[in-house]
Amino acid sequence: MDAQEEAREFRRLGHDVIERLATYFETVDEQPVFPNVDPDALARLFSGGVPRSGRGADEVLATLDEKLFPYCTHTGSGGYMGLITASPLPIGVIGDLIASALNQNLGAYSIGPAAVALERQTVRWLCELSGYGAGAGGNLTSGGMTANLIGLKLARDFASGERAQVGGVNGAFAVYTSEERHVSIDKAADVVGLGRESLRTLPTDDDYRLRLDALQAALEADRAAGVTPACIVAMAGSTNTGAVDDLVALRAIADEHGMWLHADAAYGGGLLLSQRWKDTLRGIELADSITIDPHKWFYAPVDAGALLVRDETALTRSFGQKPSYLKDEFDDAGTRYQYYVHGLEQSRRFRGLKVWMSLERYGADELGRQVDANVEQARHLWQRALEHPRFEPAVEPPMSAICLRYLPERALPNTALALLHHRVVERIERAGEFWIGTTRMKERTWFRACPVNFRTTLGHMDRLLNALEETAREVEEELA
Ligand SMILES: Cc1ncc(COP(=O)(O)O)c(C=O)c1O
Q: Distance, CA 265 to ligand 1 centroid (Å)?
């Protein structure tokens, strides 16, 4: 490969691709949100073996025109309100492009000095927004799953008196969380060796918040059985409804029992940008660790999660090994920050750049106004559903996630009602203007919509409710 030739090709393709992507952003709302395509047909499109010889870059791009672009889910479309993935800010997309080109590897200072400093500033900003003081720190991660995993690892190490890192898990520990936790908590309990049976998944109240009486009862039962309470995982914005547990009360209970408090604000962390709703997360700064996903409600392209810690030395105690091949010969003064000593991952992408660029470009307040607009959209849909004889909303939305269910004219058994909801979202997906999901809460099936999207408007919410009503009536008749 000729370096000059590569650079020329990059310039030419780059202009072309950016031009197309700009048009894509301008027209994303005109396309069906989800492609009508058979998964087997897609698998056939990508079924060939390893190419032994290459072809022209234009040809490769033309193949994407044929095989990739027509079959994407347009998360940037205002009608996308599904599994929490944001409309990506174009400045963040540029950030990702630059990050790939510079290929700074954040694990070690020697592979990205300025990138490490920029990423540390980004982490400090997230800590500041969370209300953490000096001494806080964190890691940017692939997402909430990894951030929650690191949070549980810190909790486990803390509960074991910093022994589990070396000696493994000895004895019985319990982790307390609500039935509305994200499944990443179950996976994390497994991966850090506590096991899923160590999870006490406790009932919630009518607002889907962890019931403190149930927590106290579980703690008493565990104490009596000789189980050590290790950690509370509080929801600071549940996936289904944006429920926020009583963080202040949970801090007091955690202290009483010597437990770690982890707050999962993977989704809800966006409210830290809001001037209007930030009190919803009152007490989040009391948590020992916090998960926040900028790739959710900070409108960053995937991937950008974050695990923040009130005392960043916890990360070093948990992960601080230094093998000889990573030793930095030039760091006698100890001023080169080595992420690999203070976190799980070593090689990793320069995730901070897109988050940093978005905050520099718009400022926290402007992003916060967009977050407020998404909350207003959810509340608008909630209000309309409340007034509608055929819909029941689950709860007044504290964030942008909203669950509602259809009430048929004639009562249907639960299984038929669940089927109705599933069929409706299938048809909504096929119709192309929206993508929403379903969920189960308290033995009931609900429609679930969650705009984290700067193209969504109140009009989308009105049209969504109309589409839901029309489609549900149709399905109801078929099921009768
Ligand atoms: C509350 C909560 N925690 C954790 C996660 C997992 O985050 P990720 O998909 O970024 O791994 C999600 C994802 O939606 C979530 O809603």
A: 9
